[in-house]
Automatic annotation (TrEMBL):
It comes from the Bacteria. This is Uncharacterized protein. It comes from Polyangium fumosum. Residues 129-150, 171-190 are annotated as: Disordered. Residues 129-146 have a biased composition (Pro residues).
Length: 373
């Protein structure tokens, strides 16, 4: 059961031990109060009211604002889990000590604060009022007095109709129109047809004219129009259709030759110089046929294959002092070595793919030589 709190008296507070002196105990109690499903029942079971909790909150807030050490301890307790709920002992009501000087208020003690009364009624917004509490009706409005002078106006009538001028009036009920029969008169004979629906009025908004009024009063000659068709020429007898004379000129604009021209035989092509060149039956002059074809640049011939040249270069890179001995083993002299290098550089410039192949073969040859040492 909820303990009866003392009646609110101005200028007194209650001492709550150890919540008003121990910061750790207050934080443990306040954490349990915040997590309780029924916070007010939690306070009532320990003989406390909401006014006591507000008094403790204001008390510790004032201490933390005045003392940096208390504020530091409070921050440290917030970072750690709260302990067990302490046993609360509610003391008697104590008077509040008034400050000596109004300009310089004295620091509040541990048991007395500036709270002048004890709140023993529910103050939280989520507390439901009692079921039997009567509902407060709003006070009745006082009637407006009559105007005393000409400067004051009053309404001359009560508004009991729609204010808007365009308020829709109730529509009148439509008049009942008897349905007309959809079936027309029966045909006079079997050979005569009749429409399925009888039309009492014409469908078009204008009446049909008589046949005598629809005919043209004059005949339109199509030759008078500029865009009309041209009249057909008069027919001629069969004897007038043949040409009057025979054509003595050839039909084509150029005379037919008596003998067709004979083409001169092509000049024989010289035999191929090397085996790689193929022999054609007819020589083709590319410069005459394709004016944009450029002649293929001549690539100097090399004495060594690309594998042998790459291996020789790798040996020279690994043993520069023995370069003369290495090129002599490949059958080259210093002059022939310089000519071979120039020929391979020309080939590499014409075909970049051969340069990539030579670099790959040189790296592989160098790896084999180093592995064999």
């Amino acid at each position: 059961m909820r303990n009866e709190a003392p009646s609110p008296v101005q200028g007194v507070v209650r001492a709550v031990s150890p919540l008003d002196t121990d910061l750790r105990a207050f934080f443990a109690f306040f954490g349990a109060f915040s997590e309780a499903p029924e916070p007010l029942s939690f306070l009532a079971e320990r003989g406390l009211a909401e006014g006591d909790l507000f008094h403790l909150l204001a008390l510790w807030q004032a201490r933390m604002s005045a003392d940096r050490a208390v504020q530091k301890d409070a921050l440290g307790l917030l970072a750690r889990p709260t302990g067990e709920i302490p046993d609360v002992q509610v003391g008697p009501a104590l008077p509040v000590q008034a400050p000596r000087d109004a300009s310089t208020p004295e620091k509040a003690s541990l048991v007395a604060t500036s709270l002048g009364f004890v709140i023993d009624r529910p103050a939280l917004p989520f507390v439901a009022p009692p079921e039997n509490a009567p509902k407060l009706a709003p006070p009745p409005s006082q009637p407006r007095p009559a105007p005393q002078g000409l400067g004051e106006t009053k309404m001359a009538f009560h508004i009991d109709k729609p204010v808007l001028p365009f308020a829709r009036k109730p529509a009148a009920a439509p008049e009942a129109v008897p349905p007309r029969p959809l079936q027309g008169p029966a045909p006079a004979s079997l050979g005569e047809t009749r429409p399925a629906v009888h039309l009492y009025k014409p469908a078009l908004p204008f009446a049909a004219k008589a046949l005598a009024q629809t005919a043209l009063t004059f005949q339109v000659n199509p030759r008078g129009l500029p865009f009309g068709p041209k009249p057909a020429p008069p027919s001629r007898p069969l004897g007038d259709t043949a040409p009057a004379f025979a054509s003595a000129k050839p039909v084509l604009p150029f005379p037919m030759p008596d003998k067709p021209p004979v083409a001169a035989p092509p000049a024989p092509r010289p035999p191929p110089v090397s085996l790689a060149e193929t022999s054609l039956a007819l020589p083709i002059n590319l410069s005459a046929v394709l004016p944009f074809v450029k002649p293929t640049p001549s690539v100097p011939a090399t004495r060594l294959a690309i594998e042998a040249y790459a291996t020789m270069c790798a040996e020279i890179w690994l043993d520069p002092p023995g370069a003369l001995r290495i090129i002599a083993r490949y059958g080259l002299s210093p002059e022939a070595k310089r000519a071979e290098d120039a020929a391979w550089q020309a080939r590499f410039a014409a075909a970049p793919a051969e340069r990539a192949t030579w670099e790959r073969l040189s790296i592989e040859a160098g790896a084999r030589i180093r592995a064999g040492r």
